Amino acid sequence: MHQSAWSADLVELQLRERLDEARGFCIDIRGHKKRAKVRQGLQAHSCYSYQGEIGVDQAFDGKLLEQGSFFMPAFDVCMEAEGRFENAKLTLKQCAGHDFQKFKLTQANQIKLSGDRDFCVAIGEEKSRKGGGGNPPHLMRSLMLRDCSKVDAKYSTWKVYELQ
């Protein structure tokens, strides 16, 4: 981890709709906090901010979001789509600034793959799975690109959350 990249401007990306998780769903690295498994990509997971802090595996650099970079400083990686197609997975790679790493948080609060009006980041519509921690247990769902015009807004509308 590159501690020098660690910033005070950390935010969570929370799904606006709580669905079946009272703590809300956040974009999250698979695995647990500092032991997150970067190579396994991203998922939707119970937000950690209810614990009074933003977990390292859910922390994005808030300043870089406006520039289209969804950078996770604790692991020195950027969110990347595996391609421009329905149900494309969201992975994490070294930041290179190429097209599959450029996203935009729109005025409609969707996270869209830049240069492509059709695909946005969406949480899975499947039933939530229980995770290994939390009380009540944390919940998880899949995370992927979906056709923005076909996915229900409750699965694809996000907000940027920072602790006060």
Average pLDDT score: 91
Distance between the termini: 25 Å
Q: Under CATH, the topology is which? A: Trefoil (Acidic Fibroblast Growth Factor, subunit A)
N-to-C order of helices and strands: EEEEHEEEEEEEEEE
How many structural domains can be distinguished in the coordinates?
Answer: 1
CATH class: Mainly Beta
Strand order of the largest sheet: 2-3-12-11
Outline, from the CA principal axes? globular
Number of strands: 14
Number of helices: 1
> Based on the structure given, which CATH architecture is correct?
Trefoil
| Beta strand % | 25-35%
Major sheet: 4 strands, antiparallel
Low-confidence stretches: 1-7
Polypeptide structure, described:
- The chain is an all-beta fold and 164 residues long.
- It has a single domain, classed as Trefoil (Acidic Fibroblast Growth Factor, subunit A) (Trefoil), CATH 2.80.10.50.
- It contains one helix and 14 strands; from the N terminus they run E-E-E-E-H-E-E-E-E-E-E-E-E-E-E.
- The strands form five sheets. It has a four-stranded antiparallel β-sheet with strand order 2-3-12-11, with no helix packed on it. A three-stranded antiparallel β-sheet has the order 4-1-14. A three-stranded antiparallel β-sheet has the order 5-6-7, with no helix packed on it.
- The longest helix is centred in the middle third of the chain and has 4 residues, at 62-65.
